[in-house]
Amino acid sequence: MAVQDKNNRTKIYTGDIVAGSLLIAESRKIAQLLLNNVNEDQWHQAIIVDNILQKRSPVTAKRQALLIKNRLTLMEPALWELICKGNNDISVQALLAAAIKYSRLVGDFLDQVMREHWRTFKPVISVKDWKYFIEICAQSDPHVLEWRESTRAKLKQVVFRILAESSYIDSTRSGKIQPVIVLSEIRKYLTRHSEEYVLRCMQATQQ
Question: What is the pLDDT of residue 71?
Fold first, then answer.
């Protein structure tokens, strides 16, 4: 999802996903709030007063709730239903689809780095791969050059955690790539709603 900076220049890649990875349990709760079509006061009551996300501070709760909401509202209510009512595998893949739609950083890493590794039988992704990927991103979006090294490191942690949560790697420590088949429920949703880019990214480790 491209955005504009204050000078109306397009940002292809943004760093706000540092607020969290897939946030599976939290996202189920936010998806239910969206399905319930809560108003602003009800949202505040749920996130800040009732602390349904069970965060230590209102600031963290607000930040993560906003990130999840921004991801999910790019998708249709049918996906929110899958997140709330599907089993864990369905919910995780639905959340990954929303994360890819929201963040080209997640999508392009799958589509470019993960796919190339899988195609060329390179079994592991590493910090070196991430640094090279960031260099490539900066060529198409100079805003990336403005990120601090600490931001880049945090983004790497979040992206690798997303890959581990969705089983594309077996853990963030090893980085060992695993094949993932897109579930029929997710594939049908993405096809029905013309989400070709998201589906292609999710098929990075399919034959």
Answer: 97
Percent of the chain with pLDDT over 90: 92
Q: Roughly how many angstroms between the first and final C-alpha of the chain, as a whole number? A: 27
Mean predicted lDDT score pLDDT of the chain: 94
CA distance 64 to 33: 14
The overall longest dimension of the chain from CA atoms, in Å, is 52
Confidence class for position 8, pLDDT limits 50, 70, 90? very low
Q: Are 61 and 47 in contact (CB under 8 A)?
A: yes
What tokens were used for 159?
Answer: 């992206």
Work out the burial of residue 118: count CB atoms within 10 Å of its CB; fewer than 13 is exposed, 13-18 middle, 19 or more buried: buried
The dihedral over CA atoms of 18, 84, 177, 147, expressed in degrees to the nearest 10, equals -10
* Per-domain residue ranges of the chain: 3-202
CATH of region 3-202: 1.10.3540.10
Residue 17: exposure state from Cβ atoms within 10 A (0-12, 13-18, ≥19): buried
* Three-point CA angle 168, 163, 14, nearest 5°: 140
